[in-house]
Here is the input.
Amino acid sequence: MTEPGRAGLAAIIDDPSGALLAFDFDGVLAPIVDDPRESLPFPGSVAALGRLAQRVGAVVIISGRPAAVVVEFGRLAEEPALDGLVVFGLYGQERWDAVTNEVVIPPVSEAVRAVTAELPALLAHHGAPPQTWIEDKGGSVAVHTRRCPDPAAALAALASPIADCAARHGLVVEPGRFVLELRPDGVDKGQTLLAYAKERSARSVCYTGDDLGDLKAFDAVESLRGAGIAGLKVGSGSAEVTEVANRADLVVDGPAGVLALLEGLTEAIASSTSSAQSG
Here is the structure.
C-alpha cells in the first residue's frame, strides 16, 4: 500500500540472499487462542517458513514468549529446512539458534521475581475476575484477561494498578491483546531487529507482526530505510489491534494470510532467480 513497502518487497525478491525476514509467533505463525500455552502453528506455516528460509539470507522469530516455548510449540527444531533459524524470546532477552539447539537465557531479575510474587494479591485487591490469570515467563510476567467475560473492561480496570506496580519495581509494562506484561526495560523487538540486521549485514528487511509490541519493530524497519536498507512492514490483521494495520505497508488476513505470503514470496523468489539464471 506504500511506495517504500513496494521497494522493500522488490528488494527481497530481486536480492533474496541479502534479505532478513522476521516474524512474531502468536497471531502471525500461530493463531491467537484463549490460553497461549495451547497455541500451535497454523497448519503448513512451519513447512512454508522452511521453504522460504532456503531461499533468503536469514529468517528469525522475535516473540514475547520464552524462546524455548516458541521452539517447542512450533516444533521448529524438527524442521530440517530451518537449519539456520534464530528465535529471540522475551523480546530479545533470550536467543535460540538452530545450529546449536541451545537457548541463551539471562538471569531472572529480582524485580520480576518480586512482582510475580506480588501480583496475585494485587489482582484480588482490585477485584480482577477469576478468569484473569498470571503467566510466569521467567524473565517477565504477564496478566491475561482474554478468558474474562469482558476482557477489555477487565484489562482497563487493571491497567493503572499494574502500571504502578511495575513502576515501583523499575519495570515497564508491555501492552498486548488482552494482556499486560511486566518486564525489564532496555530490550524490545525493535532493538532486537536492528541488532540482528546489523549482525547479518542485511540489505533488506521484512517484519511481520500483529500486536502493539510489534510497533517497535515497525519503527526499526523505518529506521533502517533511513539508513538505505529497503524494508517492508507486514501486519497480520486482526480487529483487536488496528494500530498495526494502520502502520503496515501490507496487511494480510491473520495466520492464514501469513501462510499465503510465505508461499507467495517463495514462488516469486524462485521465479525471479530462474529468470536471472536463464537470462
Residues 254-278 form the longest helix (25 residues). The chain has two domains: 3-93+187-278, 110-184. DSSP finds nine helices and twelve strands in the chain. Residues 203 and 228 are 8 Å apart (CA to CA).
